[in-house]
Amino acid sequence: MTDFTSCEVCGIRFGIISWKRFCAKCNRTCCRDCLTGRLKDAGGNYSDFERVKICSDCVVAESTTQSISIHEDLELTGQINRDLRLELKEKILALEKFRTFLLQISTTFGPNSDLFPSSDSVDNGLDDRNCDIGELITKCQDDFENMQDKIRMMRRRYETSISNEESSRSEIDRLNREIEIISTERDSLRTALSHVDDLRHDMEDYKQHYLEVMRDYNDLLVRCRKLELLLRSNHSDRTDLSSVLNESNYQHPRNANRRRFWLFSSCCPRFFL
Fold first, then answer.
1. Which of 4, 60, 73, 167 has CA 20 to 30 A from 91's CA?
2. Is residue 266 part of a domain?
3. Which range of residues forms the domain containing residue 251?
4. How far apart are alpha carbons 171 and 152 in whole angstroms?
5. What are 170-228's pLDDT values in tens digits?
6. How far apart are CA 199 and CA 187, in angstroms?
7. What's the CA gap between 171 and 61, in Å, rounded?
8. Residue 56: which of 33, 83, 87, 76 has the closest Cα?
9. Which residues, listed in sequence order, are joined to residue 54 by a DSSP beta bridge?
């Protein structure tokens, strides 16, 4: 069981002179001599925000932790330095290779190369080679600028073609809409023409029927005129006709209808149909 009457660090008993205090880190009971004032911020680190007191054991443990952390940081720094030295060595080797490549370009395309036999010979000093490389780089830059101009021109042509394609697509859509409207009107005209053909056939039928009626009418008119002439030429026949008509009224209705049919059939051709 923990004894709260004495200091847990040095073992001194608490009294009127030596009061009981607590460590801010491990919460053990300590005397005044075993506590050390430290500054602690809101995040748990010691700083200038709030002064707290911790025991000597916690101070030693904290110092040991800080020493270990510093040692680890030193080891990590050494590893970083070694990696940086290795990377720097690789960069230097790459620069040497690039320098060798530039010297080869200068030897190949310089004034003293076989590509320029008519050129005046110059010293093969490092400055001359650097000058040749600079001119070659300038020429490459000019070629690159020309290539950029060509790319810009091709881009403008491409944008123009895209714009023309969009305009053509809009025109095609407009023409398709007009074609749909014309197709609808064509279907309407076909329907109207079909209706007109039906009406024309009906008119032809009506005309044929009208001609037949007129022909029957003319035949009937001729027969009526013949009958009228016949009645005028013979007065006795008129009397006989009157007697026949009167006699038919006193006979059987069916016989009377037959006689009327026989009488009018000679005048109207429609009864023969």
1. 73
2. yes
3. 194-272
4. 28
5. 999 999 999 999 999 999 999 999 899 889 899 999 999 999 999 999 999 998 888 88
6. 18
7. 85
8. 33
9. 36
Domain count, the chain: 1
CB under 8 Å to 104, separation ≥6 — which residues? none
Q: Which of 100, 136, 134, 97 is nearest to 116 (CA)?
A: 136
Cβ pair 62, 39 in contact under 8 A: no
User: What does pLDDT average to over the chain?
Assistant: 71
Beta bridge partners of 22: 29
Contact between residue 23 and residue 35 where contact means Cβ atoms under 8 Å apart: yes
Judge whether 95 and 118 are in contact, CB under 8 Å.
Answer: no
Classify residue 7 by its DSSP letter: -
CA distances from 210 to 31, 164, 206, 263 (A): 142, 66, 6, 26
Question: Would 12 be classed as within a structural domain?
Answer: no
Contact by Cβ (8 Å): 34, 56 = yes
∠11-17-18 over CA atoms, to 5°?
Answer: 30
Q: Cβ distance 3 to 12 under 8 Å?
A: no
Among 239, 223, 225, which Cα is nearest to 272's? 223
- Reported as a single tens digit per residue, the pLDDT across 33-63 is 777 655 454 444 544 445 667 777 787 777 7
Residue 105: its pLDDT value, please? Answer: 59
List, as own/partner pairs, every contact residues 26-34 make where C-beta atoms lie below 8 angstroms and the sequence separation is at least 24, other chains included. Answer: 26/54, 26/55, 26/57, 26/58, 28/55, 29/2, 29/4, 30/55, 31/7, 34/7, 34/9, 34/10
Look up tokens 């030693």; give the residue: 60
Inside any domain, residue 261: yes
Rounded CA separation 54/35 (Å): 5
3-class DSSP state of 73 = helix
